[in-house]
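A quick word before the example. In earlier lectures we treated sequence and structure as two separate objects. From today on, think of them as two lines of the same record. Here is Oxidoreductase written that way.
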Amino acid sequence: MAAREVIPTTLIDIINETPRVRTFRLALPAGSLFSFRAGQFVMASIPGFLNSKGRPVRRAYSVASSPRDLEKGFLELTITRVGDGGFFSNRIHECRQGDPVNIDGPYGSFVLREENEPQPERYLFVASGSGIAPLRGMIRTILMENRKVPVSLYYGYRMSSDFIYERELMDYALAIAEFELVTALSRGNGSSSPVETPARNIRTGLAGRITRLLPELVREKDGAEIYICGPPEMVGETDAFFRGIGYPDDRVHKEQW
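And the structure line, produced from the sequence above:
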């Protein structure tokens, strides 16, 4: 993958999403022409952070914000601190407001349908873990553009403390009747303390992997456009489920991490 023009950005905010996950808000330089489609990714690097061969360390991260946020001059990357094996993630988690971060891109064909294209009957998103990042950017885009299309998000994570964007996604579901939010915990005490809300469009803290719950959540094919993102096994199982109930290739989009 050939590198594109490097764009210098400035880290202007850091949001702690979970104990291991942070969202980094990057301000673009004045007059920047950078653009992307919801779902695409960029290559990120930190000036002066080099590998053993003296080359910049670059890592791919999905843009977690909406292209509409560019109107305010920023984009966001949501990054999980991997631990001993996370050479770049450890370094960026040490960054502070005001630090420089370079990006180049965008890259990728895992993209949301454009606003001026025919819209599906609903958008259905299925994510696991940090695979929620590009889908969050897509969801923000749909809502910011007021597309008036129902949205369903089925999101699986390990434990209750691993719910990325929890407040934001709950706010969407509480405010928008046609925003369906279902979350599932693969570990811990799923369903022992579900969120108590009169909203029928919200079911959180269910027990089990999100892939195991799909037959209950989606009983038959409809006119949905489906976007899947997460680890390879989860993506493969989810893709197979939707193909098995009759969704055609052009209605199922997937990205594995």
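Notice the following. Residues 7-107 form a domain with the Elongation Factor Tu (Ef-tu); domain 3 fold (CATH 2.40.30.10). We will return to this example when we discuss secondary structure assignment.
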